[in-house]
Amino acid sequence: MKKERNHSLDLIKTFAIIGVLFIHSLAEVYFRIPNYSTESNIILTIDASIFRCAVPFFVMVSGSLLLNEDRKVSTKAFYLKKLLPLCIITLFWFVLYSTFYCLINKQPFFDYFFSFKGTNCPHLWYLILLIGLYLITPILRLFVKKDNKKYILLFIGLSVIFQFLVLFLKNYTNVFDVYFEKMKFGFVTQYVAYYLLGWFITNFEINKKLKIGLIVLGGVSVVSCAIGAWFNIDLWYGYGNEEGIFTFLYSLGFFLLLYRKENNGKCIIGKFIGSRTFGIYILHMIFVEIFLRFVFPLDTSIINPILYVPILFVFSFSTSLLSAFLLGKIPYVKKLLLM
After folding, report:
1. Which residues of 194-203 are buried (b: 16+ CB within 10 A; e: fewer)?
2. Which 3 state secondary structure label does DSSP give 189?
3. For residue 171, what pLDDT band results from cuts at 50, 70 and 90?
4. What kind and span of H or E run contains 190?
5. DSSP label of 336
6. What is the pTM of this model?
């Protein structure tokens, strides 16, 4: 029996894709205006706070779906039906975007194919992240089961300590450099914690008081991210190789706020956008570049950079969504959009 679609996950994915496109719109404008200006500080602060949970959200949703123990799948089947198509799609988009940047910037193809030299938003890094997560998914599925709840919590707890908290505190003392880094806890770092966290939240009921507390803590954390960005304290709002404790707490709290285990009611807009997030994500940088270069190049003497950002966002989002919708109607092409 096919499991009913969870509409709150569509809502979370919708917020996440809006966040990704807003981050890239902010970034493209940020790199085109003077550093440390009032406008650049405002743009960085918005980038580093409100939408900082976008990428963690996508990883958490992937974890909730791909680690679901009710979905019985062998390692061979998973690699052939999930990992292999993802690798082929990744290669295709790397070639396409390398060709695209090569043509518009008139630089060697392989500068882009191997390093994305010259582009400020190499968004395809997320595909490489997904390949890594897909590679270890069959291994994680061996122990990611409801009966192993306490071990999953232990893993997430270790990640919070060694990836988030230690990295945050070591900026203020060398004690953690001397002792904790020598423990070599790399296996609990990076995005695996978010992957497991998404599965955990969607499979267990969270105590109401604890849930409210985490949501409030998430609210405090997004304010902390904004303060960190304003005063250029990157460890307060980072993610990825330099993970931020506040980004983690914000992502956790906001995910809890949006997620509903019950499927009461449907959000048509959420489902329409949520089912096309990959297509929007993969296509949007083409339209960002087209807008910046040909449609309405940024001229600070004509328009304030802060006002330019939502215009760029609306253009890239609407054109990407429309393109994903239309391309999704073509049988073989839609596979390149994971549809």
Report:
1. bbbbbbbbbb
2. coil
3. low
4. none
5. G
6. 0.93
